Amino acid sequence: MEKKERFSLLLLEPGEYYFEDYIASLAITENDTWLSGRLKVCSLSLVFDPKDYHKPILKIPFTQCGSITKSSNEGSNILNIISKQHIEMLDHNVLEPYKFINELSLFRIDLKYARVEECLSLILQLHRASSLQTAEHRHMAAAIAFGRQTLITFDPTWLELGENIIMEEVGQKITPLSINSGRIVLTTLHVYFQPFNNNEVGLEFEYEINKQLYLTFKNTEIRDNFYDNSLNQSKLKMEKRERCIMTLKWQNGALSNYDYLLYLNSLADRTVNDLTQYPVFPWVVADYSSPTLDLTNSNTFRDLTKPIGALNPERLLKLQDRYNEMNAPKFLYGSHYSTPGFVLFYLVRKYPQYMLCLQNGRFDHPDRMFNSMSDTWRNVLNNMSDFKELVPEFYDTDQCCDFLTNKYAIDFGTRHDGRKVGDVELPQWANSPADFISKLRQALESDYVSNHIHHWIDLIFGFKQNGPEAIKANNVFYYLCYEGAVDLNNIRDWNQRHALEVQIMEFGQIPKQIFEKPHPPKTCLLIKDFQKLGILSNIKQYWNWKNLSVLKLFTTTKHRDIATSVKLSEDLQTVWSVGYDAMLKVHCISTQKQIRSVIVQGFPVKFNDIILPSIYTSTALIATMHGSLIVYDIDCCRITDDFRAHEDSISCLAWSKTGYLITGSLDCTARIWKAPQAPWTKIELITSLKAELEHENKVTSLALSEDNKLLATGTNVGEIFLWSFLDYSFIQQLPGHSENVNKISFSRDCSKLLSCSDDCCFKVFDSDSGLELYSNTLKCPLKTLAWDGYHVFVGGENGMLYLWDLEKFELICKVKAHSGGLFDIDVSNDGSMIATAGTDCLVHVWKTSFDI
Questions:
Q1: Which of 214, 485, 698, 805 could disulfide-pair with 273, CB 3.0 to 4.6 Å?
Q2: Alpha carbons 736 and 753: distance in angstroms, whole number
Q3: What is the mean pLDDT of the chain?
Q4: CATH code at 259-507
Q5: Which H helix or E strand runs over 143?
Q6: pLDDT digits over 75-105, tens only?
Q7: Beta-bridge mates of residue 69
Q8: Other Cβ atoms within 10 Å of 205 Cβ, number
């Protein structure tokens, strides 16, 4: 069986270029045995990989070379190298610390198929460059690499029959601690990387689960062009993962905490292919001493509202004292929560070759290694320079937990107490590495973490990441940790630039900021609430709709003018509607017969909206275009009240279960009225008006949350405002629409607000933070919407009824509901029945039907 080549870019120094490869033989001194193998010419060293894997790989640093010459023997093809130090690696193919041989040695290298003259000029050029300072050497090596890259062309023999090249660019393939330069080629069928090297802007392809190809290009223009051309290829199937959709999936419980954190890391440019920007995960468990892990006890968990450095108040006080005495730029924490060294601290048993690469062929001191979970947690709580978070491997139950065990039986050394460094010591509550990871994952997905993880997201990816909010949250790191703190491309001094790059790498990098407002909490309480209310008899069936359709049950008698508002009674026995014809119609759903059809007033007046207060069994409240509110008793067929509520048309109504009526008007106000106890009596305006909310523009829509704590109003210019319904104070303005807001509605759990507009867009907001969670633009103005808590029903000016899945935010189905515009929608609590009203003067009642 052919032996796999042992050479790896990890045997080079980080950032070192690998230029050429030659078949050769090597001997040390005149009389030594010749070894067959391959010679690698790199920017900082020559590396010889013997064919006999029992022999060590030899690395000869250029900085240690005294002379490099061609043998003087006539006809010889031998390269002579005198070096005062060389390095032995992988002796007997065992992964262990490198051996540094500090003695004068003569290496003779016999090239088998290449002429010494062909490679000597490059080797001598690299040898001369090794005397330069680090920054200047890197610049020169990059220039040499670029010059050689331009001479290399893509090998067309890789292509399949009929496959065409779309783009070909110079770029790099990035893996942890190594960069492999080459040509990146996009074809109609594939993306190819033909090895051979600079590191600026990246593009990552996930081509299998947990498999990525991380490529970098010279600049953003080339990267973006490559990306756009990739999307244009019909063979490429891209998974659409918009941030707003992923956040909603997580909120609704369709995405685990683990998967959501992985997604946020990816969105913030964190990748397992780059140790300087490795995915960061939180410590969530704070108990590593108890015999059992109690996930129902809040004391088991770390406080997720605080960064690691602020968990210990005594340590924080010392850090704050130092911070107050510091000159600008100030920082609380001199070390970061994620650096290459911290990542490999955890993963050294899994990736020992990475640690050897990072630390110049050495492992860390045995007492400083990741030996014990309880010791590590104790250290991040108390040490004045240790604030590291965790890595995703601590919660990944699909992996084999090999970062916790010394599976390669590597000699990491002996600790001060005589114990050899072996497997990581686990807490008592874990009986194996797999059990440990499983329980940490359970903790990550627990109710406590689900209810608090959004605070940690604010610290790492959100609005508490930097600026005044970071100072308030005690979350301030060294300024070079922050994205955009320094523009390296504008620094012309190579030594200064290199120094900054080294500092950035050693200090760690803050993830790219994703959220500028507080992250919404997890709100997957919907199904639990439905179960409590007894609304859904078969929860599993409801959550597994596959082929859903909307079927028309019946059409009511026709209005004489546009039907503007429709409501289903709570018991689903009747459907009520009003329109511009000043008529109120009531139909029995079971018999599909008209119960009432009355002209409410003796003179023509257009009705805009209708609500059915639950405390009045047969009473409707009707909003009119001349500013009055009509209270109509359907049983007695009479108006029980009619009062002037606004100076202009009443555009919208809302009702509180606590007996409050909210009216919105084109007179730019929303008013809150305290309704009398049943039966409804004449309202005295002076005593019943409780508050008036003034707007600069016409109020066109409003909604009250189920818990009666929040009121939302929308205007004709697209504004959306949130108000406290407890004291009627203004809370905030949301990033609304560009045109008239036609309808707004709170979710059943009050966590979200939905809106639609004449700008053809409907949006979902987090009602606590005001963060826009989702936005979708359709092909026509959207006039109305409703939701049952899980599905959104949207009505358009084109008469279409759209049904959207709120978990996946996919269009389930659409129905041509009206020949004109769809003006209003009402939906039952369980989503089984829908009523629509339209400009065609019709009111339809629909039933939902689905297959499991």
A1: 214
A2: 11
A3: 86
A4: 1.10.1540.10
A5: helix 134-149
A6: 789 999 999 999 999 999 998 999 999 999 9
A7: 80
A8: 14
